[in-house]
Each structure stands twice: as structure tokens, then as C-alpha cells.
Specification:
Shape: elongated
Helix content: 25-40%
CATH superfamily of the largest domain: Metallo-dependent phosphatases
Strand content: 15-25%
Largest sheet: 6 strands, mixed
Radius of gyration: 24 Å
Strand order of the largest sheet: 1-6-7-8-10-9
Structural class: alpha/beta
């Protein structure tokens, strides 16, 4: 019985990606038959199988999987559920840690963890810019303590792994800079979360964190918009005003602008969550103030309702 060209293509490409032995076993073929398929494949398609074999030899399975995903849209906004059943919830909220920057002392993260333990926090939320990234600002490399994707990723994993309770993170524009500046197709936030068992990735710069028992929606928003404004409320108002009624969460938590401010607007509890990074040289030259610190937020919950909301800012003074 003649074998179709489609079948030959399938078998040979499987062998190129997975190895000869795997193909022989998967398709129950003798080696001579596979060799005949390979000869026919070269007649039909040229040297593609040879090229695929070289690719298979060069990259691991994990790397090949990542390469195959590069053509897809990696900027995913997720809806992540947190199965909380109590009536009062306490959260540690940090943002803009910028790990890898000389202006980002790791001790601040550990101080936040220590305070959160004292206050009985149930979970932690990180609102993005986990790392300093790869920026194209003049001389930005001289503001790095850890250079490159791997060093900053590993530092983030080592630091954040000290938190043992549930942890949810979105990424920020600095995290995405390795992709935007270098076209590398990487997701820092997702890679960090995948390496920490109790961490969950919420989205690329934006995502919804949902408490299903109460149908409470918390939006984690980092954004790529212009961050600072003269009036502290302006950015929060603009973000909320751009939401349709169906998009409105119960709580909005933002990073990116390194500002600390909270308000209740259009029935949304909104908090600009400050930053753990110190005032950098770049921000000083731009005349941008960094409000350094973290939040512990307590709230009372009922179905589809935040009964009360108490954000407390813990500033760093030096």
C-alpha cells in the first residue's frame, strides 16, 4: 500500500523533533522504512528535515516549546481565583521592587515580609516591575547590581521565595523591557512565578484577582501609561474613568508611578501602592518623586461587596 506524502511528512518531522528511536517506536516502523521516508521527504521538501534535526540537537525540549510560542501574543490578562472563605482579609501589597537595581535594597522586601507576618496577612500581591530590566536610558547599565535576564530573574526568585504564603504577581514595563528592547519573547513575571511553588502569575501588566465565594474582583494594574502627575489622584481617576461599568472591579491596585495614594471613586477602592525601590538617579533628574514603602490592606467582605476597607502605608525613610 502506497504511503501518502502527508504521512511521510508527519513521520519524518516527528523523528526530527523527537529522535529516530522515538519515531520507530511511536509508528512501529523498521529503521529501513524510516530511512526510505526520509529520502522521499528530501525529494518532496528539500533539506527541511536536516534543518529540523539540527534544531533538535541544539535546543532542549523546553527551549523548543518556548521558541514555538514566540509567534503568539504573550501579553495575557488572566483571571485568577483565590479561594478565601473568611469574612476579613488581610493582604500585603508591594510593587516596583526593581530587583537588579542598585537603588533596590533586598532588605526592604524582607522588612515588608516581617511586618506582614506580624499583621497576619493571608496573601501577598505584587503589582509589577519585579525587576529593573534592560532599559535604553543613557548609562542605565551603571545603575544595575545584576545585569541581564538570568541574573535578575534568579535574584527575584531567591528573594520572593522567602514568602511562604500565597503570592500573586503581574509584570510591569521594566520586566517586559527584555522583550520590547531585545525582541526576546520573554515573560519575566511568568518565569519567576513558575519557579516559586506558592506564586501565581496574574498577567502582563494587568490582571484580575477574584475571590469567588464573595464574587469580589481585585484588579492589579501596572500599565505602560505615563506614570506621574502633579495631582496624586489624577492617574487613578483616569484609569477608572476609562473602564466600562462591566469592567469595574471592587478594588483597583496600581503600580508603575511609584506613588502612594488611596481613594474611593466610582464605587471602587483604589490604591496607588508606592514602591520598594529608592529614588533613582533617573527619577531625580526627571523631577519625579518616589513614595517608598508598602501597603498592608485589611477589608471586610460580603457577597459582591467590600463592607470596609483599611489601607495602611508603611513608608521607608532611608
Amino acid at each position: 500500500m502506497a504511503v501518502s506524502d502527508t504521512r511521510i511528512k508527519e513521520v519524518v518531522e516527528f523523528a526530527a523533533l523527537n529522535g529516530t528511536e522515538a519515531a520507530l517506536q511511536a509508528y512501529s516502523l523498521p529503521s529501513e522504512t524510516l530511512n526510505r521516508y526520509k529520502r522521499k521527504y528530501r525529494q518532496l521538501y528539500g533539506d527541511a528535515s536536516t534543518l529540523m534535526g539540527k534544531v533538535r540537537e541544539k535546543f532542549t525540549d523546553e527551549q523548543l516549546s518556548h521558541l514555538l510560542s514566540l509567534g503568539s501574543d504573550v501579553k495575557k490578562t488572566h483571571q485568577i481565583q483565590y479561594d478565601f472563605t473568611g469574612e476579613e482579609l488581610t493582604l500585603l501589597v508591594i510593587t516596583d521592587t526593581h530587583y537588579g537595581s542598585i537603588f533596590s535594597p533586598i532588605e526592604r522586601t524582607y522588612a515588608a515580609f516581617e511586618e506582614a507576618e506580624k499583621r497576619g496577612c493571608d496573601a501577598m500581591l505584587h503589582i509589577g516591575d519585579i525587576t529593573e530590566g534592560h532599559m535604553n536610558r543613557p548609562n542605565s547599565v551603571y545603575e544595575l547590581s545584576h545585569i541581564g535576564y538570568k541574573q535578575q530573574r534568579d535574584l527575584s526568585i531567591e528573594t520572593l521565595s522567602k514568602w511562604k504564603k500565597p503570592m500573586y504577581m503581574c509584570s510591569g514595563n521594566h520586566d517586559d523591557s527584555f522583550n520590547n528592547k531585545l525582541g526576546a519573547g520573554l515573560s519575566m513575571g511568568e518565569d519567576v512565578c513558575n519557579a516559586i511553588p506558592n506564586a501565581t502569575f496574574v498577567g502582563e501588566g494587568d490582571g484580575l484577582w477574584i475571590i469567588p465565594k464573595y464574587d469580589i474582583k481585585v484588579r492589579l494594574f501596572h500599565g505602560i501609561d505615563a506614570g506621574s502627575a502633579y495631582a496624586l489622584s489624577y492617574r487613578l481617576q483616569r484609569i477608572i474613568n476609562n473602564m466600562t461599568p462591566a469592567q469595574k472591579p471592587h478594588i483597583l491596585l496600581t503600580g508603575h508611578d511609584h506613588k502612594s495614594f488611596s481613594m474611593f471613586y466610582r464605587n471602587i477602592h483604589a490604591v496607588a501602592c508606592g514602591c520598594l525601590q529608592k529614588q533613582s538617579s533617573w527619577m531625580t533628574l526627571k523631577g519625579i518623586q518616589a513614595m517608598e514603602g508598602f501597603y498592608i490592606i485589611k477589608m471586610g467582605l460580603a457577597y459582591n461587596e467590600v463592607k470596609w476597607f483599611e489601607p495602611r502605608f508603611y513608608p521607608f525613610y532611608k
